[in-house]
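Before any further analysis, we paired sequence with C-alpha cells, yielding the entry below:
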Amino acid sequence: MSSLSSAAAPVNSALPQPVLPAGQKRAPRRVLPGFRLTLGYTLLYLSLIVLIPISALFLKTFTMTWEQFWFAVSSPRVLASYRLTFGASLLAAVVNLVFGLLVAWVLVRYTFPGKKIVDALIDLPFALPTAVAGISLTALLAGNGWLGQYLEPMGIKLAFTPAGVVIALIFVGIPFVVRTVQPVLEDAEKELEEAATSLGATRLQIFRHVILPHIMPALLTGFAMAFARAIGEYGSVIFIAGNMPMVSEITPLIIIGKLEQYDYTGATAVAVVMLVVSFVLLLVINGLQAWQRRHAGAPA
C-alpha cells in the first residue's frame, strides 16, 4: 500500500524547492518576455510609428523663420478655416453630447423590437469609410437629393454650406459619446434611483442629483473624444462642404491644398498648429479618463 501511494505522488515533490525568506512571495511566471525586451520593443515601435513622423513634422517647420511661420498659420484664409473647423467641431460635439446621452439611455433602459440592430448601427461610422459617408450625405442633402429637394425650396440649404460640415461631423462623432456613456449607465446602481423615488424625488431630480453626477465623467470624456475626432475629419467633409475659400473650407483641406502647390513648409506649419491642439485635447481626454476611474473607485 505504501508503494502505491509513493508511486502516485507527484514527481516534482522529490525535487528540492528553493527556500524563500520569511514574508516573501514567489514571483509569478511571466508569459511575455522580460521587462527590458518588451520595453525596448515598445519604444522602437512607437518611435517608428509615432515619434519619428511627428519629429520630422516639427523639424520641417523649424526651417522656417518666425515671420514665415506666422504668415503661414495666420493668413485670412487659414484663420477662416480655423474658425470653421474648431467651431463646427465644437457645435457637433455639443449636439452629440445631448443626443448621444439620449441614445445611450434608450439602449440601456428600454427594450424594443430591433434594439440589436439600432445598437449595431451606432458603430456604423467606425466601419464606414468616411468618403462613403460624405458622398451619402451629399446625395441626401443636395438640392436634387432625397431631402434637399424638399428643404431648399423652403430656404433651408444644408449641402455645400458650413451646416453640412456640422452634419458630417455629427455623423462621425456620435459613436464616441454613446459607447463611452453606455457601459457607465449599465453599471449604475438602480437601487439609488429607487431609494430617491421612495423619498419623493421627481424623475428630473433623480436624473440631476443621482444619475448625472455618476455619468458626468464619461459624458465629458465622450464629448472630448468626439471633439478631437471632428477636428481631424477630412473624408466625410470635403464632399458636403463645397470647399469654398473663406466660407466652407476646413483646415485639413488647407493642408492638402498647400501640399498640392508644393508648399511643404506652409503645410507643415498649419499641421503643427493642428498637432498642438490635438496634443492638448489628448491631455484633456487622459485627465477626464483618470477622473472617471477615480470617480468609479478604481485605481488611476
